[in-house]
Every structure is written in C-alpha cells, then in structure tokens.
Amino acid sequence: MKTLTVRGRYLAWDTGEPFFYLGDTAWELFHRLHADELEHYFSVRAAQGFTVSQCVALAEFEGLTVPNAHGSLPLKFSDGLPDPTQPDTDGEYSYWAHVDHALDIAAAHGIVIALLPTWGDKINLCWGKGPVVFNEENAYLYGKWIAARYRDRWNLIWMLGGDRSLEAAHRRVVDAMARGIREVDPNHLITFHPPGARDSTDFLLDADYIDFHTAQTGHGIEQCYQSDAVMHKMAAASDKPYLDSEPRYEDHPACFNDQIGWFWNEDDVRQNAYWDVLAGACGHTYGNHCIWSMTTEPSSYFPYPWRTALEHPGARQMGYVKRLRLERDYFSLRPAPELLQEDLAGMGHMAAARGDGYAYVYSPLGVPFTLDLSLFPTAVQVRALWFDPRTGAERAFAILPPEGRNLFAPPTQGKGCDWLLILEAITHRTV
Known about the structure:
Blueprint: E1 4-7, E2 10-13, E3 18-19, E4 21-25, H1 29-32, H2 35-47, E5 52-56, E6 75-78, E7 81-87, H3 95-108, E8 112-116, H4 136-150, E9 156-161, H5 168-184, E10 190-193, E11 198-199, H6 201-204, E12 213-216, H7 227-237, E13 242-244, H8 266-278, E14 283-286, H9 289-292, H10 306-309, H11 313-326, E15 334-335, E16 351-355, E17 358-363, E18 369-372, E19 381-387, E20 394-400, E21 405-408, E22 419-426
Parallel strand pairs: 4-5, 4-14, 5-8, 8-9, 9-10, 12-13
Antiparallel strand pairs: 1-2, 2-3, 6-7, 11-12, 15-16, 16-17, 17-22, 18-21, 19-20, 19-22
C-alpha cells in the first residue's frame, strides 16, 4: 500500500513523488449524498484536478439523529443518546457501508479522503445541534474502531477537530481519539481542522500525533486578506507542513450575511490560493458553500443546488494552482519576500516565492511591481512569463539580463485581474 509522508515542509508519496494537497470541503457527503450521486461528485472533482475531499463521518447537520440518504444512522442508541462505542453496521447497506462505498469511488478517481471521525459539535457544542456524545473513554474506543475499519485504505488522511475550539477537557477527548487511531493505524497522516480565524498550532502545537498543521482563515474579513500571514505564523510556530483547510468559499455570503449583497466568488478564492501557496503551504483547500452542505433546495443563504455549484469557475481554477506547482522543481519552493521592492496592504498585497532556477510573484489586482533581478546570480538570462490564474495559460514575454531593478506591468489591472509572474533562470548560453 502506498502511503503519504512528510518531506520537509511538503507532503509526498513514499515513492518520492510530490503530493499537492488540493482539497475540496465536502463535509456532508457521507450524510447527504445517495450512492448513485457519489460517482458524479468524484468524477467531476477528479477532472478539475482535486486530490483530496474533506468529509465527515458523524456529520454537522444533525448527523447523529437524521438518517443519511439511504435511511441509515451511524450509531446505535444507548440510554436515549447515540453511542460512539456502538457503530451501526447492521443491514444490507448500512451507514458505514455507504462510507466504504464513497472511499472506493474516491480511490478509483485517485482522490484521498481527509476523514473527520466526527464534527466538533459532538465534542464541544458551542453552537449547532450536537448532541455532545464523546468523552475520553469512548473517544479512544471509537478512534480504535474507525481506524481498524479504514487503516488498509491508501487514500486516507485523518483530520481531527471540526470547526470547534479545544478547551482543556475537549483537548483530552481529541487526544484520546488520536491515541486510539494511532494505536491501530500508525501509517496514515493526522491533522486537525480548527475553528474560524484560528489554526491548529493554537491548540495542538505540542501534539506529537499531528503530522501537518491547518488553518481556517474563514469567511469573514478577520483573516481573509491576510491568509498568507497565517501561513507564516504556522511556519514560525512549527517545522511541520501547513495549509489552509478552510479559506473563503466560493458562493459563500461575505461575513455570513446574505443581506450584504456580496458572495465570495472565483476572484476571491483565487487570491487566498496563491497567497497561501507562495507562503510555502503544502497545498490548499477550496470550498463552495453549496457543495460542503450538499444543497438541494437553494435559498438566499445557499444560492445554488450542489450539482450546479460543482461546475462553478473557482473549482476549475484551483486545478491551475496545482499544475503550476508541479511543473517546476517542487520541493525547493520557499517564500521569498526579498524579491519584492514594494508592496500594498489588504486585497492588493503581493506575494513572492522562489525555487531552484525559478521564482513566482503574484499581483492580486494586476498592480505593477518592481523586482531586483540581480537576485538570480547564476543566471545568464532570465525568461519572464505571465501566468493567467483564470485560464492556466502561460505566455513568455521577455528575456532579460539578471541585473538591476525591473518594472513589471501585468497585462490588466483591477479586481479579478490577478496575474502571476514566472521568472526562469537560464544558466547557459546557446549557440
């Protein structure tokens, strides 16, 4: 069985092949999709370039008390409450047989499932429906059970948490669940999905079972325009890989308010993707508000049915991010703020990164910028290309000497006119 491993700040297969974590939040997939709908979801996401789907076993939308699309519940009841020590596997097509089937189809399409054993409201209610059913003892037993069921799957990452903070009591429950998983399954990576405007280093910096950290920069304005700063924060706190597991979702009402009149769109989600990846993230998670919820009846808050939202442009454009990363030396890329001679704040701020023989500079509003090309000391010439984040097209436009300050003016300017400059070092003369 091939396995995912950590290689420096990035993820890789045990064969050495790089793994770019391009995630989709499909939180309610096990709970709301019928078996006949799974093939459509995974085939579309695979064609768009996704490598990961983030799915929840015990789902947020009353996942313990409202049956899935086949009429099944995940847990049996004891003393009037769902019992995590009694997963319900009875019947010809149980809830867990449905989860098995989803992992089979995902595997057939080359997609890894980031599997949350439970949404966080079953540990720490805060808001939502719960009910809270986990304590240290049953969390450990449930962790052992679910790990035993899925430890032989190649296409699996464990993602603990689920949008809730960890106070001391909740931390003990999560630690117990992780201990149960790790005792049975020592091979699959483990991470943690935090609440909004927080990251896993806030709660689990000292947890040795965490293989890579994630943030939820979220759907408000607290962190959405500084998501790369959050990536740098995680990098400073830990030497483990990191990524944004929940940035702004396409089609999500800005700041959770559908009366403001603005829903985050493909321009917005692209900004977070390029900011985060150029900040050294090991991947990026895309989300659509109507996909994670698997909406079938649109409303002012969930404006599209999930099948329609599946084809919205931001999802396709995420695949271009992955392709950009895989086309050049993967593991050498690092943040390179020293390339930038000036910068802007907020939505207009730029990002730069460099790898062996190349560099990327992202201008989210197409604003011109200056770079010092003497930072390519081994180059004979520097080849310059514009990369269009809307189409994935690359176009060479200049060959430059590796010296002095150079002004670069993207082809267009304004909101939605983001561009990425690619610089490639040419280290030998041709005759």
